[in-house]
Amino acid sequence: MYSFVDNESSSNDFIKGKPVEITFCWASKWHVKMYEKLGWIALSVSNGYQNKAKNYLNGIDHLLISLKAKKEQTTGPDRIQDLNILISNISKLKEFANKLINKSEVRTSDTEEGTATPVTMKWLSKWYAMLYSKLGWMALVKSEGKKYKVRCYLRFINDLIASGRKKINELTDPDSIEDAKIIYNNSLKLKHFAEKLLL
After folding, report:
1. What is the pLDDT of residues 118-146, one digit of tens each?
2. Of 100, 131, 157, which residue sits at a domain end?
3. Residues 91 and 30 grouped into a single domain
4. Is residue 116 part of a domain?
């Protein structure tokens, strides 16, 4: 059996690629979490945190190794098929991450106009977080040829940018203005990441 932690193991086992013993349920959840982190990791890299990208890519490799080990131990044909899907999706995620995470300059220009929607700061924050969390999934959707969903996602980003700009102009509290500017600037970065990955 594979075990991530035992009497002779160390934290270096993760880097060495030793698989972790996982349930099928945890394999599925881990797969989802890695997809949801892609947008946030791209943002971290754009802010100079290259080590986060390295750890994320190591995490993808570790998940792949663990999924393959789980597949070797699995006998049910339905579970094996599901594991093949997870392995395929994570292999694609690795390609997306390598394409997106590099040291290239991040454009912060708002070139296409979106539709500004009146929003509260709380909703603006949730909208922004939701779009970042969906970036990895959108790359998978694109690889499946679902162009309409990709266009909708890019349109939502433009609407978020327009709404953020509108909110900055409406606010009077300096702290709220600063928060709105952070969301706005990070939304411009998300647009860059999405265009780079999806177009």
Report:
1. 889 999 999 999 999 999 999 999 999 99
2. 100
3. yes
4. no
Judge whether 5 lies within some domain: no
Choose among 74, 77, 40, 71: nearest CA to 55. 40
CB 40, CB 83: distance < 8 Å: no
pTM of the predicted structure, to 2 decimals: 0.77
Q: Is 76 exposed, middle or buried (0-12, 13-18, 19+ CB in 10 A)?
A: exposed
Q: Confirm if 36 and 139 have CB atoms less than 8 A apart.
A: no
User: How many C-beta atoms lie closer than 10 Å to residue 27's C-beta?
Assistant: 22
Domain hosting residue 156, numbered range: 121-198
- Extract the tokens encoding 174: 């300096």
| Residue 190 is assigned to a structural domain of this protein | yes
Helix spans in 24-105 (H) = 24-46, 50-73, 77-100
